[in-house]
Amino acid sequence: MGSAVRRALAGRMWSPVRRAFAAVACVAGRADRIGRGSLAGRQPFSIVAGLSAVAVFVAVMGVPADGGASGLAARIDPPDHMTGTSRTGQAFDGVAAVGALFTDNSGRLGSHFCTASVVHSPAGDLAVTAAHCVTGGKTADIVFVPGYASGKAPYGIWQVTRVYTDQAWQSSQDPDDDVAFLQLSPASDGVPIEDITGSEQLGTGSQAGTLVQVIGYPDGADQPVWCVNWTKSFSPTQLEFDCGGYTDGTSGGPFIADLSASTGEGTVIGVIGGYEQGGLTPSVSYSSVFGAAIAALYKTAMAGG
User: Fold this and answer.
1) Is 179 exposed, middle or buried (0-12, 13-18, 19+ CB in 10 A)?
2) Cβ atoms of residues 220 and 112 within 8 Å
3) Structure pTM?
4) Angle, CA 266 vertex, CA 85 and CA 72 arms, to 5°
5) Which of 95, 138, 229, 263 has the greatest number of CB atoms lying within 10 Å of its CB?
6) DSSP secondary structure letter of residue 299
7) Contact partners, residue 16, CB within 8 Å, separation at least 6
8) Is 74 strand, coil or helix?
9) 199-254 pLDDT, tens per residue?
10) CATH 2.40.10.10 is the classification of domain 98-198+295-303
11) Calpha distance 251→238 (Å, rounded)
């Protein structure tokens, strides 16, 4: 992606929610560098100053139903306030690179049932979600709506054309491999989704104790929820994230770490899934640890193999 495109996308990626999270991450990073103690001893970090009464006007591309670009449309992101890590997911207006998976019936949207996020690839056509979200269904019946909120699809509707899952998932639905990459069709003018929404990076090998923002679309809700907290180690192959409000439908929601202060992009180090298909209670969520198998699957998806 060219530098000019990246600069244009940076404004789209930077909602007040993301600025708030990046500020927390920045303060947390400074605390780590000066030798803060164990995770259990960390206190919430206040970043209310500067966020009060903020209304951010962002010019974004308006996208028709086939995903193609059609000029500029104004978007207003409401002010958000955060005093550090949070205990309950808060509804918000969404971000461009994260969206909901919907059933599709001959071009008509059904209901949304899981969450996915755009991740960087050379072709600009990949999203990541939980494998259990897309097991047993037909790709022709699934579409991705990035930034979905309040019944609107500000960045278009994108058809899933191929699903990539690990052989271990295909053979036994191993919770340690509950990750899928989705290939998305380009717009009618050939533009890939990443050129419209921007993307997150994909990170592997992340350990517990990482500050993440987790976004998900609860079933039946018109808005996504977001929450910030530190990951925990549930097992050597599973991460845990504690925050309320993550009900059915949030599966596939990204664990986003390391938001860039310059671009607003982050790194997906997990997705809600894995143990108990992501958790049996709304307050505790899980993710498979992204290791060598997920890295290999990502490489296969990028190659289109």
Assistant:
1) buried
2) no
3) 0.75
4) 110
5) 95
6) H
7) 51, 54, 56, 77, 78, 79, 80
8) strand
9) 999 999 888 899 999 999 999 999 999 999 999 999 999 999 999 999 999 999 99
10) yes
11) 15
DSSP labels, 226-267: EEEEE-EEEETTEEEEE-BT--TT-TT-EEEE---TTT---E
Spatial distance between the Cα atoms of 239 and 278, rounded to a whole number of angstroms: 10
Q: Of 41-45, 137-141, 193-197, 203-207, which gets the smallest average pLDDT?
A: 41-45
Question: Residue 52 — very low, low, confident or very high, per pLDDT cuts 50/70/90?
Answer: very low
Q: What are phi and psi of 5, to 5 degrees?
A: -65, -40
Six-digit token string for 256: 């986003």
Question: What's the fold here for domain 201-290?
Answer: Thrombin, subunit H (2.40.10)
Q: Write the pLDDT tens digit of every residue in 66-98.
A: 554 332 222 223 334 334 677 889 999 999 999
How much is the pLDDT for 84?
63
Please count the helices (runs of H) and the strands (runs of E) in the chain.
Answer: 5, 17
What are the boundaries of each domain within the chain?
3-84, 98-198+295-303, 201-290
C-alpha to C-alpha distance for 56 and 53, rounded to whole angstroms: 10
